Amino acid sequence: MKRMLYASPVLIAMIFGGFFLWGLNPERDPNAIPSVLISSPAPEVTLPEVAGTGVPGFSHADLVGDGGPVVVNIFASWCVPCRAEHAVLTRMVNQDGVRLFGINYQDQPEDALRWLNELGNPYERIGSDLNGRAAIDWGLTGVPETFIVGADGTVLYKHVGPILGNDAISAFTTALEQARQEGSS
Amino acid sequence: MIPEIGQFALTLALGFALVQSILPILGSARGNSLWMRSAYATSLAQVVFTMIAFAALMRSFVVSDFTVLNVVENSHSLKPLLFKIAGTWGSHEGSLLLWVLILTVFGAGVSVFGTNISAGLRARTLSVQAWISVGFFSFMLFTSNPFERVFPPPTDGQDLNPLLQDVGLAIHPPLLYIGYVGFSIVFSFAVAALIEGRVDAAWARWVRPWTLAAWMSLTAGIALGSWWAYYELGWGGWWFWDPVENVSFMPWLLGTALLHSAIVTEKRGAFKSWTILLAILTFSLSLLGTFIVRSGLLTSVHAFAVDPERGVYILWLLGISIGGSLTLYAWRAPALDAGGLFRPVSREAGLLLNNLLLATATGTVLFGTLYPLFVEAISGERLSVGPPFFNAAFIPMMLPLVFAMALGPFLSWKRADLAGVLQRLKFVAILSGLATLTIWYLTEGGPALAYLSIAIAIWMLLATLQEWAGRIRLGDVTFRESFRRARNLPRASHGMTLAHAGLAIAILGFVGSSAWKSEQIVFVTPGTEVAIAGFDVRFEGVERVVGPNYVANRGTLTVELDGEYVTTLNPERRSYPVSQYSTTESAIRSNMAGDLYASLAEAANAQAEARGAWTLRILYEPLVNFIWIGSAMLVLGGGLSLSDRRLRVGAPKRASRSIPAATPAE
């Protein structure tokens, strides 16, 4: 009995070692969880519409409304990568039926409107975040950033930067596919 | 040429370490004193050659030798000289070189200053120390060679991460490493004692100064690191429970436990196997820290050199050193005879409580740090554990510890009178209650836990002062007599008072700056006024400034209090064109009451930029400087204890020795 007590540190250390060995798998990228929001509920913020766009703003309740996952994209007209990403998002909406919500970050409504008129509007709803407070709740590190919010309002995935290039697009669509299956099962 | 010399020196050092890892321990097993003494020469040779390697790398940085890959990746010809030098240990490879340099310096320290240690124990200790050296030298040479060349050499370097270009951070890693590596000696002592199968008061007395030195350095390193996080990151926070912060905090917590349990082993012969275990675990946690920071196992804001191949190598090192030593412990420790009976209320029991709480707190931090990994391994789910967990789990453990810390020094060895002690602390209890009520009256809106923490910190501060006053009989005898008594007290006793008071003061800082922090984030254009914590801050505008390797936008803020001019703050937003990094240089108006802290973020958007608008972040952090004053007192207290004659003179003979009853403990 006493021996067991003295042997317990080495046993515990071995268990830890096993986890470490598993954790060193080179396929595993610990930085793939860059957001503290992952697997927690989407922030409870209500965003007004961007004046003149004709699409409504949204609140947390709208994210959990209709059963499927929602993609929330934070964008701004002054952000160059957002412009590049816009086409990718539009294609996702048109071809895959993705439900896309936008958060217009620190942008004057007239600029946002001009931008959408020029490039087209793939967004189902657009919330205005003029002062950037909502973006803080979403843990924004820079625009653009895109989240996948599950049917139950849980943040499932976060992509930092524009969704451009094959790797980013396939990672994103895979995550979206998983979110859909989780929602339907 | 110079880098090759460094490389060669490193290889030679590995050779000497190999010899030292075998010969002295064989010698002590066979009673061959020549083999045992060989450790003296080999440990010195290790230091000399590691220093040559270190100097070679430093020279490559200073002269910007861009044929060396490490210099290319971490330096730039325009960088200020201080940061070129600091760049030597700013990278993974260089910091490892610093790691082994300190390791060998400590090893040679035992060789040179450990003349009062019995020859057998010293030889074994030095061999164990050399095992660690072999591990790290080979790790460097096989996976992370700092002297690797590039051909053709690029015209200029890629620059050191500007966040790291800071005086605080230039000296933070060396201090941290002295702490980490200092515990290696304690580890080696512990393993040597297990091999010898003997732990006694003399052993504990040898261990203590090394532990104390390592602990002081780690304390200073951690405090500097949090100070850096506070003013350089521009977030206005000093602790984020980031994995990289946790890995330096865990050895500190356990090292603190070790510091106290070694006292019991030394003075009362109790806690022997526990002290040994703490010595092993403290260094194990230092190694674990090295592993976590470099393996990419966990996500962190400041982990560097993420490389699974290196991770596997370090994991092997961990497996051999930690697994080996703990197996040895499981095998030999049950044979160590327990000693020193004591009552449930006694100094020993108090220190036991201290150890249990500190060990549990360490376990909690370890669990919280690794929890995401465990969960991911078991369920595949990814999550991160944030400050809420640590605050909720850690603070409730620290409060009883701090409460009891006030009582500890009043308790006598073997058997103490708790009722009598509480009776003596009556006035302290009343005073701290009154002080807390005053604070409650003066402030508003703090959480209940904050007032409780403040009360306990004041309680501890006053009790510590009363204990000290009682020892020099302040007020009972003439002032001159008290002064004489104070001078005659062992320095370790003043050291304890200073360190305990320092912790109380630091806690006031922790609580004040987190519970009563006020914050404003606003868009500002020239002329905008912001009111915070009684101050009126006016944003005057931004001008462009050019630095040696950056350009900056420098804001000007005029601060007024009740219409009176107080100060001008100049927060900066710097961008480093070479490495394409931006940093925030906060501006701080600091005094004892608190800091007014301002930082600027990027222009909010295109229109805002056109209007000259900026995002301004202003914080008021009450008492925040108490954190660093308290930390400095902890370090000074440790230093006073370390300079105590009784520790300097070193170990007594192995024969039992009576210890005066009045001798205080830390």
Largest interface: A-B, 36 and 44 residues
**Biggest sheet details of chain A:** 5 strands, mixed
What is the second-level CATH architecture of the domain at 1-165 in chain B? Answer: Up-down Bundle
Q: What share of residues are in beta strands of chain A?
A: 15-25%
- Low-confidence residue ranges of chain B: 301-305, 650-666
Q: What is the molecular shape of chain A?
A: elongated
> What's the number of extended β-strand segments of chain A?
5
GO cellular component, one term (chain A): outer membrane-bounded periplasmic space
Keywords (chain A): Cytochrome c-type biogenesis, Disulfide bond, Redox-active center
Domain Thioredoxin (chain A): 36-181
InterPro entries (chain A): Periplasmic_diS_OxRdtase_DsbE, Redoxin, Thioredoxin_CS, Thioredoxin_domain, Thioredoxin_ResA/DsbE_sf
Keywords:
heterodimer; A: alpha/beta; 5-stranded mixed β-sheet; elongated; B: 666 residues; alpha+beta; Four Helix Bundle (Hemerythrin (Met), subunit A); 6-stranded antiparallel β-sheet; 21 helices; disordered C terminus; lyase (chain B); Cyt_c_assembly (chain B)
Task: Give a description of the structure.
The complex is a heterodimer of chains A (185) and B (666). Chain A has 185 residues and is an alpha/beta fold. Chain A is 43% helix and 15% strand. Chain A has helices spanning 2-23, 60-63, 80-96, 109-119, 133-137, 165-184; strands spanning 70-75, 100-105, 125-129, 145-149, 155-160. A 5-stranded mixed β-sheet of chain A has the order 3-2-1-4-5. By secondary structure, chain B is of the alpha+beta class. Among the domains of chain B are: 1-165, Four Helix Bundle (Hemerythrin (Met), subunit A), CATH 1.20.120; 518-625, Tick-borne Encephalitis virus Glycoprotein, domain 1, CATH 2.60.98. Chain B is 64% helix and 11% strand. The A-B interface holds A 2-3, 6-7, 9-10, 13-14, 16-17, 19-26, 30-34, 36, 38-39, 76-78, 106-108, 111, 131-132, 136 and B 273, 277, 280-281, 284, 291, 295-299, 308, 311-312, 315, 318-319, 322-323, 326-327, 329-330, 333-334, 370, 372-374, 376-377, 381-384, 386, 521, 523, 604-608, 615.
